[in-house]
Every structure is written in structure tokens, then in C-alpha cells.
């Protein structure tokens, strides 16, 4: 085995979690490239810097998310829903974990849940069997007032459907 092949094998083992050095690299890399605004961009930068799965594929986005939020690397284990201090060596410092976690929090900022329509999820289309969805439309008038209209309709995701929308009525 040549030196280059040996280094390649070591890098692969490192990034498949067989050696602990991959995780400080992932955290440190993310910390140094803080401008990344999504798990996808983090994954792509890791791929560019050599952090890959088997067969030279990029790490999955879910794996990046798990790696950056897993307290195991701090020496903390989760068992039966509770956290315990482990006896294994910590992979990263608490400070680095907290700094990265703060940046990850910006990626995972809470999103607005949307509307709370009364009949969504309770009915399916009688013609095609697809789900029923709701839409809200607001009609604004020149005098500054407005009316809210809620419409329920078939999503038409399963097959073509001829059903029209149903109005929920007018809501001031």
C-alpha cells in the first residue's frame, strides 16, 4: 500500500466515524465557515474539504444535523430519554459545541406554523380519494376594510379530479 493509499484509507475511516478525529474537524470546519445558512451548504462544504461517506458520496443532510447536535461528542450519553455523563473521552470542547449550537439555532429558527383550518385532515375527496386542503384569500377594498374567504378543495394528487372548491363562508 502506497503512502497516498494509506492516507486515503485513514481519511475514509476518519469520516466513517471509526476514528474520533472526524468530529472535531466537522465542528471546527463549521465554526470557521459560519456564513453557511443551511444544512445543505454545510454538507457541500464538508464534501469539498474531504468529509465524505463511502463511495465518495457526500454526507447526508440528516447526518450533518445529527453530528452538529449530538451531545455524545461532549461525553454525554442519552439513555431512555435521560442524559448521563459518559466515561468516554470527549471529542470536542464544550465551548466549541455551544458556539456551533448557537449558529445551528439560526438555521433551525422556528417557522410560522401556518393556518389552523377547521376541516383539513378530516376529509378526503369522494371522487379520487386525495386529501382535502384549504386556502385563505383576503379581499381588500378601497375603503381599507377587507373580507377573508376560506376555500376547501381536492389536492388532485392521486389522479385527475373534476371536483370544484367549497367555500367556508365569509369571515370579517
What is the H/E string?
Answer: HHHHEEHEEE
Could you report the average pLDDT, rounded to the nearest whole number? 76
Main β-sheet description: 3 strands, antiparallel
Shape: elongated
Assign the CATH class of the largest domain.
Alpha Beta
CA distance, first residue to last residue:
76 Å
- State the CATH superfamily name of the largest domain: Putative Large Serine Recombinase, Chain B, Domain 2
Number of domains: 2
**Uncertain stretches of 5 or more adjacent residues:** 11-21
By DSSP (H or I, 4+ residues per run), the number of helices equals 5
Write down the oligomeric state.
single chain
* Number of beta strands: 5
How much strand content do the residues show?
15-25%
Explain this structure to me?
- The chain is an alpha+beta fold and 172 residues long.
- It folds into two domains: 3-107, Hect, E3 ligase catalytic domain fold (Alpha-Beta Complex), CATH 3.90.1750; 113-172, no CATH class.
- The chain contains five helices and five strands.
- It has helices spanning 3-15, 22-32, 39-48, 61-69, 94-107; strands at residues 76-79, 82-85, 132-140, 146-154, 166-171.
- The strands form two sheets. It has a three-stranded antiparallel β-sheet, with no helix packed on it. Strands 1-2 form a two-stranded antiparallel ribbon.
Amino acid at each position: 500500500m502506497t503512502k497516498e493509499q494509506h492516507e486515503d484509507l485513514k481519511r475514509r475511516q476518519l469520516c466513517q466515524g471509526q476514528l474520533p478525529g472526524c468530529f472535531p474537524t466537522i465542528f471546527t470546519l463549521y465554526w470557521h465557515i459560519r456564513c453557511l445558512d443551511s444544512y445543505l451548504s454545510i454538507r457541500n462544504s464538508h464534501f469539498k474539504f474531504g468529509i465524505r461517506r463511502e463511495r465518495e458520496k457526500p454526507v447526508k443532510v440528516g447526518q450533518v444535523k445529527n453530528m452538529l447536535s449530538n451531545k455524545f461528542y461532549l461525553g454525554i450519553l442519552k439513555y431512555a430519554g435521560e442524559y448521563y455523563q459518559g466515561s468516554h473521552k470527549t471529542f470536542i470542547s464544550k465551548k466549541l459545541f455551544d458556539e456551533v449550537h448557537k449558529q445551528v439555532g439560526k438555521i433551525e429558527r422556528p417557522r410560522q406554523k401556518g393556518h389552523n383550518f377547521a376541516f383539513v385532515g378530516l376529509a378526503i375527496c369522494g371522487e379520487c380519494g386525495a386529501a382535502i386542503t384549504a386556502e385563505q384569500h383576503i379581499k381588500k377594498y378601497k375603503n381599507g376594510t377587507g373580507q377573508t374567504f376560506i376555500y376547501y378543495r381536492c389536492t388532485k394528487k392521486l389522479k385527475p379530479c373534476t371536483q370544484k372548491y367549497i367555500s367556508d363562508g365569509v369571515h370579517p
